[in-house]
Amino acid sequence: MTSRIAKKRGEWINRDKPLTFQYEGQTVQGYEGDTISSALWAAGINVLGRSFKYHRARGVLSFANHDVNAMMTDGVDTNIRADVWPVADGMDIKAVNTIGGVLKDKNKYIDYLSPFLPVGFYYKTFYKPKSLFPFWEDKIRKAAGLGEVNFNYPRIIKPKKFAHCDVLIIGAGLSGLSAAVKAAEQGLDVIVVDENKQAGGSLTYDYAGEQTTADTLTSLLGKVESNPNIRLITDAYAGGFYGDKLVPLVGKDGITKVWAKSVIVASGAFEQPPVFRYNDLPGVMLGSAAQRLIHRYAVKPFNKGVVVTANDYGYRTALDLASVGVDVVAVIDMRRNGAPRDLSQKVRDKGIAVHISSCIYEVIPTSDKLGVKAVSVCPYDDISAGADSGHTVRLSCDGVAMSAGWAPAAALLYQAGTKMRYDYSVEQFVPDELPEGVFAAGKVNGVFDSKARQLDGQRAAAEAAAFLGKTVDVVTVPKVEMAPPSHPYPIVEHPKGKNFVDFDEDIQVKDFINAAKEGFDNIELMKRFTTVGMGPSQGKHSNMNAIRILARVRQLPVEKIGTTTARPFFHPTPIGHLGGRGFHPHRYTAMHEWHVDNGGVMMDAGMWMRPAYYQYRGRTMSAMEAVQEEALAVRQQAGMIDGSTLGKIEVFGADATEFLERFYTGKFSKQKIGESRIALLLDEAGVMVDDGLAVRVDDEKFYVSTNSSNAATVYREMQRNVQLWGLQVTLVNLTGAMAAMTLAGPKSREILSTLTKADISEASLPDGNMIQAEIAGVDAKVMRVSFVSDLAFEIHVPYKAGLHVWKQIMAAGESHGIRPFGTDVQRLLRLEMGHHLISHDTDGLTNPYEAHSEALLKMDKPFFIGQRSLKIIAKKTLNKKLVNFVLEKDFTGDMPNECNLVIEDGNIKGRVTSIAYSKYLNRVIGFAFVAPEQGSTGSTFSIRTDSGAMVKATVVKAPFFHLLDNDGE
Amino acid sequence: MPLGLLKYGLSSEHPAPRFFRDCTEPKKSYDAVIIGGGGHGLAAAYYLAKDYGITNVAVLEKGYIGGGNTGRNTTIVRSNYLTPEGVNFYDASVKIYEDLSEELDLNLFYSTRGHFTLAHTESAMRTMRWRAEVNKHVGVESYVVGPEEISKACPQLDISCSGQAPILGALYHAPGSVARHDAVAWGYAKEADRMGVEIFQMTEVTGIDTKGGKVVGVNTSKGYISTNRVLSAVAGFTPRITEMVDLQTPIVIHPLQACVSEPMKPWLDTILVSGSLHVYVSQSSRGELVMGSSLDPYEFHSTRSSLDFVEGLTTHITDMFPFLSNVKVVRQWGGMADITPDFAPIMGKTPLEGFYLDAGWGTWGFKATPISGKTMAETIAKDMAPDLIKSFRLSRFEDYELTGEKGAASVGH
Ligand SMILES: Cc1cc2nc3c(=O)[nH]c(=O)nc-3n(C[C@H](O)[C@H](O)[C@H](O)COP(=O)(O)OP(=O)(O)OC[C@H]3O[C@@H](n4cnc5c(N)ncnc54)[C@H](O)[C@@H]3O)c2cc1C
After folding, report:
1. Which residues does the UniProt record annotate as the domain SoxA A3 (chain A) (predicted)?
2. Are the C-beta atoms of residues A267 and A172 closer than 8 Å to each other?
């Protein structure tokens, strides 16, 4: 049984390309160009899915990408929208959200329970006793949801495209295309986008049988295609309207982000279903859906049907239906005046009865409840919205087309910030105040007449051109007298309900009435309580009726009810499209490959990759062994670490000294060239942020280093403060441009001497000093530092020379037993030296007084960041203190971990911030926050380990090396 | 079928009575006026009536109740904070939540799912351990778990995060829950109303009237109301209210956004949070994935959505769950988060007599709705803040006694 009809002019299917697919185990034929729904409908298959809540059988509603009851899965993808998704040869699909198939769905019993599942029912039950809620919740969760996710679905990466234009036109219907042509004629660069596979909007289904329509469309498309100023993008929707007129166009293969100088929204209107009992049965569809079936897919919507209407569209739908051989039993017009005489006469001439002031009281379902058997029609008073159910007439039929009105597709206008008003002449919300550079045209603007829509498009284009500085003549759109295309209250109450307003969420008229009576009587609360418009179609066919019902209940005019906020996305948008490519930048130092080749165990350090330690020269060791070995090498011979990740910033200019004085806590004014000073940075609240070194390079120039993890933050803060203070300072971030390495250990000077002619003796280059020297033939900054060892050299060279210098030093150190060492080793070494690490040993509230850094605070300076706070803090008693501690000699118990708490009398006094076993010292050493009274050398405190054991620790002086020559403390 | 539904279905008396009256004209004076009909304001009204018998109270809401951050949040409730003060406070809230459906006679869909804060770096692992230690100390069930345990709870999670940020472990928090946000507001409104509190929607406070350092009344879009006690519980609008009384707070407003997917059959049973990837996600009882990220990096007083937000979020979601590529985002939205420097709230009295502040709820205030209502009610009734909220006092900023919740609150909600 096929309902495919003879070829229609302009049809979207390609009859030369037949194809076959499986639906619910049944083989179905279709054509290229069919959507899943059109192919199924052509094959006489009308049950396309089950509803979200009651699991009612559903068919076609809109054919406009909001038939969310007809969602499919092919086992790979889920929630595929059958009304718009193209069929493909060999596809094997079934409806989502059923148990045991769409016809037999085991959950259909829920429909019979619906009297017990009124609006908001779940708020009123399942919670007493609370112990049973998890049981009910599990049931509810399983019943809800739509498709099942396929956990094996591949990650899809869709790079984004970018576009710019003078005018972006959303919607390629009559008004949008007219606007495009007009705008392009003004020399503007135009993009027109339409979500349909083909441009033309309603011209492709309404009046589509007429020659003039075809001619209009052909001529407009011809102009569009031949104009180089116009880019027409079909099969993509405008997903949202964001700041700066950013509109993402979502296509099948990704998103194009369009930044437009102006935007014309010509997105048309969504047809709205009138509401009557069983308006959701398969076979009951919107008039525009019936027209789409006929004209785009050449499918006869049903064999014998009625049209229920409240505008002229219904009459045209009736004529279309009759023209393809549907036995149209009647046009049921809810209006008291009916259609203009010539139109209704045309319909009558086809032998179709026209009943005015009538409505469908209910649809009579077939015995299996899967289709339409008849409709029951009764008189209807469109002012009181009263149906006279005492006088019903039954008309047998197998289908119903509904054309009762429209709602503007205004989501993007709302997102742009448009104020809307209700216009009684069209019974629709229309734009009242549009934001700058945003225009509306066509049905979304309340303009329905064909001629007027063309003019309205041109008018919007002229206004956009004027906005963009062109001189254009104003286009005026004469008001066309016509009956409103929308009925103000196309809603028929029925004592037995099942008159659906929201098909996504199965919400009936009484649900709204009850919600209002329960106090949810403003539109936003009503939306939240009933969940109207919260489903995947976002209220495209339901919000307007919800507003009308609420207005009626509250006896207020519609405009007093207002609308709910429309948020992106216009249609649900795939996560993979939105995510696009995604960037995960990693930074490699100049020596990266060397580390990898030499067994470096690489770890993420912010964006950088750094070796934590090495499985040096192919040996396999535990991390612990490797760390201790590398540390011992540094203590006994020499070691080298790649320090290229350090922040390196050049600060120069007339005010460079003044800048550092304000930025850091220390004094820099008397600092000599070649000397370094500790650069401690605080925030306004006096919290420690970073510590680095600032070396004076010349009178007006410093070379400043920062901790690796703070390189970006410090540079940003410097930039910000240079601006704020208006100082003559230039900043150059050399972090990536310079490689750096630290050569440490008793043999380090000896090793380095073999590679340089410079004098690096203790006398010429004492700790804290820097020289410019040639190392292995490369011009380098060489600095004496003491973070990991008393004798250490930090060598900075240009990135490109990094690897060379590193290799030369390693080679020169070979005979001295040099080892490369990683970040885990550095942590241990600096701990042995008694140096805390900011943000490892300190936290977001630690001030310098708590971390024994008072000596770095030059409180007598006129200003530095955080000084004001410190002055206040200095007067307060400390409540915690960072100390160095050791565990007992030969400690064997339960080893404490970092972050274990310091406990005294059952109260938290602090925590361990660093702890490690040092093979060199043969002791467990660490840092901890303790109460100030526990903070003096020799005091003891207790650490609670993971297992709850209490471990005694003793406060000692730093560095820890005194532990070597002294057995007690 | 539970009895309640059966009765409902069989009765002819649809519908149930109004949840709350339709109050339109405020009286001339009230014992207390609460600005803001979000969860916090309504809860405070409820506890004022219930715990202290103060029922001559007006709640003034410029829009509709629950329409602020209460109705926009991603409803994560947990107590695994970092400071003992924080843990104690949020734990008290969790305890109230657990029985709140029964207390308010409304199903709040309070659903205990377990909550994993994922750690992708060593330093994150340290913070997890720290939080676990403090939680354990206070008696809250949180502990550090390894990747195997995470996989057991959520087998679909790619532990390597597509190789971009391998998960090293997580802080597991057993009481972590989600709830139906609107219902919390409606439930408090319903019960407060039943005890006599009057709730005025579409009623905006436009000024606060003071005399001699004391509050004497408020100006509203529905006229003047005299009162000696005013509570401001307006979250993202706090600067608008505090500037009416020349009160300085360190609160800044940042947008915070979220989005939901299409409904799908249940598969994600736990709540997952990743600080490094700036993602948190749970699945609602309707089947939608509820997803959010960290604060937008700029100050901005608007609830407008941005594309950047969903782009970033979805990239990271697919790092964790590569198979979600073709699952669709239905809707995104934003709220205005009132952020404090230490990521702890500001609660209690202010230098202006009779003016009480409940603010600084940023990204984390939904979970605190019951306890903040209860403690603010006590503060108003006794004109003294209870010990539980002493460390959240406004003066802590001038006293340099901050509460340091940044590590636990910033992405975690
Ligand atoms: C996207 C997002 C996700 C979040 N996720 C979480 C989470 O997972 N967990 C969590 O615990 N918290 C979360 N939060 C934070 C949480 O939502 C808020 O902290 C909390 O809801 C604040 O509640 P409230 O009642 O104080 O404020 P709101 O709910 O914002 O209520 C304040 C009310 O005051 C009204 N108002 C303002 N000015 C006036 C005036 N002049 N006159 C009258 N009325 C006025 C407003 O209209 C508003 O309704 C999130 C927030 C956002 C935005």
Report:
1. 496-578
2. no
Distance A16 CA to ligand 1 centre (A): 59
State whether residue B63 sits within 8 Å of chain A by CB: yes
Residue from B400, B401, B405 to probe the interface with A (highest A Cβ count within 10 Å): B400
Give the CATH number of the domain where residue A925 resides.
2.40.30.110
Q: How far apart are the CA of B38 and the centre of ligand 1, in A?
A: 6
In a domain, A854, yes or no: no
CATH of the domain at A400: 3.50.50.60
The amino acid sitting at A172 is A
What is the rounded CA–CA span in Å between residue A852 and residue A839? 15
- B168 lies in the same domain as B39: no
User: Dihedrals φ, ψ of A112, to 5°?
Assistant: -75, -20
**Side-chain-side CA neighbours of residue A492 (13 Å):** 31
pLDDT at residue number A539: 94
Q: Is the ipTM of this complex over 0.90?
A: yes
Pick from B318, B337, B356: which residue ends a domain? B337
Q: In angstroms, what CA-CA distances link B328 with A518, A538, A579, B263?
A: 34, 13, 11, 9
Spatial distance between the Cα atoms of B393 and B340, rounded to a whole number of angstroms: 12
| CATH code (residue A539) | 1.10.10
Residue B54 lies in a domain: yes
pLDDT of residue B413: 53
Given an 8 Å threshold on Cβ–Cβ distance, is B164 in contact with A584? yes
Nearest-CA residue for ligand 1 atom 50 is B73
Counting from 1 in the atom list of ligand 1, the atom nearest the Cα of B359 is 26
In a domain, A580, yes or no: no
Compute the distance between CA of residue A143 and CA of residue A450 in angstroms, rounded to an integer: 46
pTM given for the model: 0.94
State which amino acid sits at residue B196: G
CB atoms within 10 A of CB A585: 5
Full residue range of the structural domain in which residue A124 is found: 1-157
Paired tokens of A670: 């008397």
Provide the token pair at A686: 């006096």
Confidence of residue B344 (pLDDT cuts 50, 70, 90): very high
CATH number of the domain within which A762 lies: 3.30.1360.120
Residues B268 and B333 in one domain: yes
Distance CA A619, CA A616 (A): 6
CA dist., res. B376 & res. B230, Å (int):
11
Low-confidence ranges of chain A (pLDDT < 50): 968-969
Q: How far apart are CA A537 and CA A571, in angstroms?
A: 7
The answer to whether residues A638 and A768 belong to one domain is yes
Residue A532: inside a domain, yes or no? yes
Ligand 1 centroid–CA B90 distance in Å is 17
Strand partners, A609: A604
CATH of the domain at B124: 3.30.9.10
- Of A250, A283, A288, nearest to A269 (Cα)? A288
Whether A728 and A794 have beta carbons less than 8 Å apart is answered as no
* Count of structural domains, chain A: 7
Q: How far apart are CA A121 and CA A526, in angstroms?
A: 14
The CATH number of the domain where B54 resides is what?
A: 3.50.50.60
Considering only the beta carbons, identify the residue of A522, A535, A574 that sits closest to B328: A574
Of A455, A446, A448, nearest to A427 by C-alpha is A446
Q: Could you please report the per-residue DSSP string of B34-80?
A: EE--SHHHHHHHHHHHHHH----EEEE-SS-TTTTGGGTS--EE---
Q: Are residues A247 and A285 in the same domain?
A: no
Burial status of residue B171 (CB atoms within 10 A of its CB: 0-12, 13-18, 19 or more): buried
- Summarize the confidence of residues B139-157 as an average pLDDT: 97
Could you give the number of structural domains in chain B? Answer: 2
Confidence of residue B411 (pLDDT cuts 50, 70, 90): very low
Domain encompassing residue B400: 26-73+182-250+342-408
> What is the pLDDT, as a whole number, of residue B225?
98
Per the prediction, chain B carries an average pLDDT of: 94
Last residue of a domain, one of B302, B337, B372: B337
